[in-house]
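Hello,

Our lab assistant flagged a job as stuck in the queue for most of the afternoon. It eventually completed. Since we weren't sure the result was trustworthy after the delay, we are filing this so someone can double-check. Below is the sequence as submitted and the structure that was eventually returned. Let us know if re-running is recommended.
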Amino acid sequence: MKIRETAWRLFSTEMNSSSLEKKGTEEKSPSYLVTRLGAMVNRVLVAGVLTEKENVGSEDEPMWKARIEDVSGSFFVNVGRFQPEAAAAMADLEVPSFVAVVGKVRTYTTDDQRVFVSVRPERIVTITEETRKRWVLEAAQSMWKRINDMKRALAVQDASAEDLVAKGFSPQEAEGIVLALDTYGFPDSVSYLKSIQGAMRMLLPDRNVDLGLPEDLSDYPDEMDIGDGESSADREDVIMGLLEELDTDGKGAPRDELERRAEAEGISGTELEEISNALMDKGLVYEPNLRYLKRI
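-- returned structure --
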């Protein structure tokens, strides 16, 4: 009997920063997205706020594209005629609303070799805020484990999958870590730790959760880079300035141009997503559609 793949609880930061697909070698064998932290992902359970949906097909043959926001960024969801149950559910969902999606991870590679990751839903349901918080906690715990597993693996010099299994990793964990290191190199832990920090700040709003303090770094991967000391407020000011400069027609700043200009200012795509989310949380900006970000 075929065993269904585990549905990973995965933040969008980790999923969207990954590009390696490990295809099944046998007929009907599963394919996996290998993340930078070594997760081998076939199915996911994601939860968050449905912020946008659009039928890019027809009324007779709908094809839905949607964005779901978690604490670290956005999941992109595509629902077509081969997912009739999910398509029917998507048609009835209101924006915004708390939703959960179970589905397969899919990658698309453009002509210039950029990889985009999306979820093809098997099922979409509305959830309560409390259920969303439970998902956030599970995703944070899962990511924390992978960060520490990667640190353990890096402590084994030139480790093979067999070496890691001997150290107590499962065969799939060992294979995923080795593939991730061979493909991506050492992971930049900062963006993932920030995702966990964002999760903890949401779950514990009365606590001053700050995982970036120097005294907290003893348990983190050795390759973690704290940066040059520029404050989050400074980076938010940069982005607010770019939003004003790039909004030339009143529609907002085009996301692709904003990302290019932000990179020129030393702000990565992942950091831009985090800053954008923070500015939206503060009520300073909003998304008129999937392609623009606009100041309020």
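-- support follow-up --
The delay was a queue issue, not a problem with the job. The result is valid. Confidence is low (pLDDT under 50) at residues 213-230. The two ends are 55 Å apart (CA to CA).
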